[in-house]
């Protein structure tokens, strides 16, 4: 019996996480992965299988790269130190690096929009939230074959990056974090818009403020910190 089917878009979709080449060596019984398995294709597409079992899934790649860090402190320290040095070295306080060994990772958290936002909006869902003591929280948005969305269901002018800056900074302020970082992480070499959208706001505090003018809880210095704590990073696609 075949371990996968081929969808109408010609993508392979495996039937079980134990069959997926990126998931089979991970903890497939973990509650976070099991919850993500509940998100399925419509029955007429890929036989209604879980979306994370597709070969195009950035969720599968995120789980492959980051879930081993949950219980491996030396590897967690090595990987997160590298990420911080490459992406946010000048943007985070020194305490952040001291907090790396005890970092906690939460996959696919749900973040509400700030109550001051005038338009209704469903919760945003970054791929990963990394908590470093109270010194910093990092939100990771992963991309692979598909680009960053340039609009939401509720706002044609609100792209995925500014949405995460908005909801992430609100979460950080409500939970007492000293620093909020946003990382857009691309797997592979696909020609998508991820780096372009990040460059729209990185180092541009006035553009961030213009995009979220209702955030009166943020000071000029806050917007400058957010503009400096936004980064794009590319990692190899582990499936190819």
Account of the 3D structure:
The chain has helices spanning 31-36, 58-66, 73-87, 95-99, 160-174, 194-201, 205-211, 220-228, and strands at residues 4-6, 12-14, 104-107, 128-132, 136-143, 180-187, 230-235. The protein has 240 residues and is α/β, with parallel strands linked by helices. The two termini are 24 Å apart.
- Assign the structural class, choosing from mainly alpha, mainly beta, alpha/beta, alpha+beta, or little secondary structure: alpha/beta
Query: What is the mean pLDDT?
Result: 95
Largest sheet: 5 strands, mixed
Along the chain, the helix and strand elements come as EEHHHHEEEHEHHHE
| Beta-strand residue percentage | 15-25%
Shape: globular
Number of strands: 7
What portion of residues is helical? 25-40%
Number of H/I helices: 8
Q: Which segments are poorly predicted (pLDDT under 50) over 5 or more consecutive residues?
A: none
Gyration radius over CA: 18 Å
Cα-to-Cα separation, first versus last residue = 24 Å
Biggest sheet strand line-up: 3-4-5-6-7
């Amino acid at each position: 019996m075949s371990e996968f089917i081929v969808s109408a878009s010609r993508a392979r979709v495996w039937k079980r996480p134990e069959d997926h080449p990126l998931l089979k060596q991970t903890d497939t019984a973990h509650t976070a992965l099991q919850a993500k398995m509940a998100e399925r294709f419509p029955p007429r597409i890929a036989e209604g299988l879980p979306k994370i079992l597709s070969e195009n899934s950035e969720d599968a790649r995120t789980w492959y790269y980051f879930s081993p860090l949950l219980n491996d402190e030396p590897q967690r320290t090595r990987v997160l130190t590298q990420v911080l040095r490459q992406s946010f070295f000048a943007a985070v306080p020194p305490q952040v690096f001291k907090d790396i060994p005890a970092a906690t990772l939460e996959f696919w958290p749900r973040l509400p929009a700030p109550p001051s936002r005038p338009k209704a909006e469903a919760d945003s869902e970054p791929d990963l939230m990394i908590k470093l003591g109270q010194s910093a929280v990092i939100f990771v948005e992963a991309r692979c074959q598909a680009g960053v969305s340039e609009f939401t269901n509720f706002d044609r002018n609100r792209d995925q990056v500014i949405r995460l800056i908005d909801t992430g900074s609100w979460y950080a302020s409500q939970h007492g974090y000293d620093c909020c970082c946003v990382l857009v992480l691309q797997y592979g070499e696909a020609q998508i818009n991820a780096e372009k959208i990040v460059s729209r706001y990185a180092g541009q505090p006035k553009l961030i403020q213009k995009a979220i003018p209702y955030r009166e809880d943020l000071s000029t210095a806050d917007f400058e910190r957010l503009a400096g704590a936004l980064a794009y990073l590319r990692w190899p696609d582990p499936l190819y």
